[in-house]
Amino acid sequence: MLSHLFSGLLACMNIQMLLFAVAGVAWGIIGGAIPGISPSIAIVLALPFTYHMDTIPSIIMLSAVYTGACYGSSIPAILIGVPGAPASAATVQDGYMLGKKGKGLEALSISLTSGVIGGLIGTVLLCVFVVPLGKIALSFGAPEYFAICILGLSIVAAVGGDNMTKAIISILLGLAIAGVGLDSFSGVPRFTYGFTALNDGIDDVSVMIGLFAVGEIFCSICSNTQQKKIKISIKMKIPFQLVRKMLKNTVRGGLIGTFVGILPGAGSSLAGFVAYADAKNSSKHPEEFGHGSFEGVAAPEAANNGCVGGSLVPVLALGVPGSPGAAMIMAAFIMHGVIPGPTLFEKHPDIVYTIFAGLFIAQLLLFVVGYAFIKPLLKIIDVDTNVLNAVIMILVLTGSYSLSNRLMEPAIVLVFGFVGFWVKRNGYSAAAMVLGLVLGGMIENEFRRSLIMSGGSFTIFFTRPLCLIILALSLASTVWGFRKSSGAAKKAAAAAAPEIPVPDEN
Amino acid sequence: MKSSKKCLAGLLAMTMVLVMAACGNTTTTSSGTSPASIASSAAPAYPNGNITIVVPANAGGGGDIFARQTAEAAKTKGVNFLVENRPGGGGATAMSYAWGQKHDGYTMMVVTTSTIITNPYSYEMPNEVADWRGVIRVMADATVLFVRKDSGITSLEDFVALAKTKKLSVGGYSVGSVDHIAAYTLGKEAGFEFEYVPYDSGADSIVAVLGGHIDAAFTQYSDLVSNSEAGTVTVLGSAATERYAGLSDVPTFAEKGWKVPDLSNWRGYVVPKDVPDDVVAALHDIVKTAMTENSFKEYVSNSKLSEAYVAPDDFTALIQEQYTGMGASLKTLGIIQ
C-alpha cells in the first residue's frame, strides 16, 4: 500500500497537478466563503473545467475544491457572523464573538490549522481503513440513523446558548420548519397552504443565510450604538502556542468529523455541532462557549474538514456517495468512465492512491493558500458597516436565488432574516434552530422507515444493540449536557453581570 | 439620521437584486413564440447556428453528462450544441425556460422518465406533457430488483417463492417513483405482499440492502454496477419489456409472465409541439448520427447504460402512454386523487 501511495504522490508532484490543486483550493476557499455556494455547488461550478482533463488531474482538482470549500465557509462566519455553509453554523457562535473582540486573526488561524489537522486525520483514516470503515457505514440501518439524530438533538444544551428554555424553543421551531413540504412517505403536502413552491420543503441553506446574515444586517441597522473600530495587529504570525493548546480538541473534532462523514446522509453540519458539543462538555471552561472560546472554533472546524475524508469512504468502499460534495466527485469519476466502488481497488488502484495522495497535498496546500488569504481578508472588518451590509445583502440574495433559480429562495431568506432579527433580539438561538432544521427531516424519515421495517413495533429501537447504545449515549449526553451547561450559564452570568449593561430596547 | 442611511443602503441592495431577478424572468418569458419567428426559422439550412440543450439538472448529474456527451459527439459532425443547466422544481424551471425560447428547433430539452413521466404528478409544471413532442429517445437505465449476495436468493423464482411465505421489506427511491411502481406491480402480478421502504436516494437503498437492513430493493442498474461487478449483490430481474444490451443475462419480469410495464429511467430529447416536422427530423438525424460516434458509444458502455433508440413520433406516443399509465398506477397506490 505504501508503495502505491508513494507512486500516487509522485504522480501528483508535477507542476501541472500542483497548479490544478492550488487553483482548486483557492476557488474552494472563495466559493465556500460566499453564502449560498455550498461545497457541492463549488464543485459543480468547477466541474465544467474538468470535462476535457484527464481523470486524475480532474479528480485531484475537485477534491482540492472540496477541501478548500469546507474551510472557506468559516471565514465569513468568523469575520462577519455569516456562515458560508451549514457546516459552519456551529463555528459562527464563538468565531464571530472572537472576531468582535478583535481576535479575528487568532480565530482565523485556529480555524485554518484545526481544519488542516482535521482534514489530515480524515485523509489518513480514509487511506488506512477505507474498507473496514465502509463496513461500519453498513452496520447503520434506519433505527441507528434515528438514534444518531436523537444524539444530535441531545446536544442542544451545548449549542443553544445560555438560556435553556429558549434553546429548546429554538430547536423545536427548527424541527417544525423541517416539517414543511411534501410528506416523503405519502406525497401529501404539509403546511404548504397551497403554495406548490413549498412542496420541496424549506431549504436549510436559505434559512441559515436568512437567520445569520440578514438577521445580523437588520440588527446592525437597528442598533444605535456606533460600532467600535477594532485595531487588529497586522503582524501575521500563526499563534502556535494557541494551536498546541487546541490540539486535543482538534484531534477529537477531526475523529468525530471523519466518523459522522462516513455515514451517508448525516452531513458535515451535524459533525460540526457534535464536535462543538463534545468540546464544550469536555472543556475546563464551558462558560466561555458562546462568548468567544477558541475551543468552540477548533473542534467544529476540525470536524467539518474531517468530513471530507469520511464522506469519500462510502464512495470508494460501497460505490455510493456520503455527502452532496462526494456525490459530485463521484459524478466526475463516472464522467471519465471510472465507476467508483468496491471494484475500483482492483481495477484502478493507481487512481485510488493518487486520490489519497491528492487529498494529502490538498490539505497542505490549504494551509499555504489559506494562510495567504488571512491577511487580506482581515481588512473586511475595517470596511464601513453600511457598505458591508449592502454588499452582503446583494451576495446572499443572488446566492440564494442561484440555489434553485426561483424567487422563492430570496423570499425565504428575507422572511428568516426577520426571524433571525427577532431571535437575536430576544436571546433565542439561531444555531439551535439550524440544528433542528438539519435533523428534522432525517429524524422523521428514519423513524418512519424503522417502523415500516418492524411492522409498526417500537421494539426495533431496543433490540438492535448498536441502536440501543447510541440511544443510551443520547440520554447520557442530555443529562450531562444540561448539568454542565446550567453550571456554565451561571458562571457566565456571574462573570458577565458587572460588565454588560441592560440592553437598550429603543 | 445615521440609521436611516443604514436602512437605505440595505434597501437599495435588496431592490437591486430583486429587480435583477425580476428582469431575468421577464426576458425569458417575453421572448416567446411569434408566428414570424417560426416562419423565418423554417428556412432550409437548418441548423444554421448553435442549438441549445436545456438540462433540467445541475452540472455533473446524469442528464447533464448525457447532454454534454451528445454535444461532444455532434461537434465532429460540425453541429454546435450549447449546454445550459436549469435545475430546480423537478424540471419545471428548465421546462419554462425551454418553452420561453423561440419554438424553432434551436432549443431542445433533455427529458428523463422522472422529468416528464413522474414529476408532473408531484410538481407544478408550466406546461402539459402533451405540449412537447419527442425528438429522439437515446438510452435507458433499467430499473432492477436486487438482493444481497449472501441472502441465499439466487433467482427471481426463489425471491417470489420466499416472498409468498413471509412479508419481505423492499426498498426503493421515494414514493410514487418508478422503483415504487415496479415493486407494487410485481407484487400484484406475482401474487405476494411486501413492505415498501422508501429511501431519500437510490444510493441509500443500496446501502440498506448491503447492510442487511432490508431484504431487497429496486434501483437503476447504473447505480449498482460497481456492486454488481464486485459480486456483493445479485440482480434478479428488470422492469423492462425487453432485455437491454448491457443486461443480457438478467431476465425481465415480462418474460416470466408478469405484466410489469417498462419502468426504465430513459433519457431523450423533446421540443415544443409546434416545432415544424422537418426541423424535428433534422434534429433527430443529428443526434442519431452523434450516437454512432465512438466517444458516445464509449460513454454509454462505460456508464453501463443501454442504447434504447426510439424515433420521434413513437417517442411522443411513448411519453403519452407512460404518462397516462403512471397516473393510473399512482391512483391505485393512493398517492394522487
What does this structure look like?
The complex is a heterodimer of chains A (506) and B (337). Helices cover 73% and strands 1% of the residues of chain A. Chain A has 506 residues and is mainly alpha-helical. In chain A, strand 1 and strand 2 form a beta hairpin. With 337 residues, chain B is of the alpha/beta class. Chain B contains twelve helices and eleven strands. In chain B, the strands form two sheets. In chain B, strands 2-1-3-10-4-11 form a six-stranded mixed sheet, with helices on both faces. A five-stranded mixed sheet of chain B has the order 7-6-8-5-9, with helices on both faces. In chain B, helix 3 crosses helix 10. Chain B is globular.
Give the tags.
heterodimer, A: mainly alpha, two-stranded antiparallel ribbon, 23 helices, disordered C terminus, B: 337 residues, alpha/beta, six-stranded mixed β-sheet, five-stranded mixed β-sheet, 12 helices, 20% strand
Write the layout of secondary structure elements.
The complex is a heterodimer of chains A (506) and B (337).
Chain A: H1 2-12, H2 15-33, H3 39-50, H4 55-72, H5 74-80, H6 91-100, H7 104-138, H8 142-154, H9 156-159, H10 164-178, E1 181-182, E2 189-190, H11 204-222, H12 240-245, H13 247-262, H14 268-281, H15 295-318, H16 324-335, H17 344-347, H18 349-378, H19 385-404, H20 408-425, H21 430-454, H22 460-463, H23 465-496
Helix pairs in contact in A: 1-18, 2-3, 2-4, 2-18, 3-4, 3-16, 4-15, 4-16, 4-18, 5-6, 5-7, 6-7, 6-15, 7-13, 7-15, 7-18, 8-21, 8-23, 10-21, 11-19, 11-20, 11-21, 13-14, 13-15, 14-15, 15-16, 19-20
Chain B: H1 2-30, H2 35-41, E1 51-55, H3 62-75, E2 81-85, H4 92-100, E3 107-112, H5 113-118, E4 132-141, E5 143-148, H6 156-165, E6 168-173, H7 178-190, E7 194-199, H8 202-210, E8 216-220, H9 221-230, E9 233-238, E10 265-272, H10 277-291, H11 294-302, E11 306-310, H12 312-332
Parallel strand pairs in B: 1-2, 1-3, 6-7, 6-8
Antiparallel strand pairs in B: 3-10, 4-10, 4-11, 5-8, 5-9
